[in-house]
Amino acid sequence: MASEPRRELYLVVSGAHVFEDVPGLLRALVDDGWRTTVVCTPAGAAFYDFAELERIAGTPVRLEYRRPGTGTSLPPPDAVLGCPLTFNSVNKFAHGHADNFAIGVLCEMAGYGVPTVVVPHCKPELAAHPAFAASLRTLRGMGVHVLHEPGPSLPPKWSGVVAAVNAAAG
Description:
This is Flavoprotein. The chain is α/β, with parallel strands linked by helices.
């Protein structure tokens, strides 16, 4: 019996210090059958051990645009997961400010209609800013699945995040 083909996922990460177990999320996704490429914001680069993420995913972490004629393109994804996304990254994604590769990937994949899940994380003072609520509404209006409850933002259980990605991807 042939095995089911692996599904492609872009995991977009930004710099949220409370999400110290992003490697645990990545393991859960890979174990669930997702071939995962990690795409990181420039500010997020200081928060993660790229060698560890690459070892788990089996693919290089992508941080910036490649120059034409160099490197390889990313495989087309079946889904995109933005986790964690900071206040800044949520607002940039919602308003199309693709000033770095990671946010550009989120914006472009949403434009293609690729199923997308985001898990925002920011401190309550930032979550109270009216731009944040407006950005979450904008993302939901775009068809993005937003895993965010009002109040203090705690890291979700990875099993719930994986389930949300699977549900979004169909």
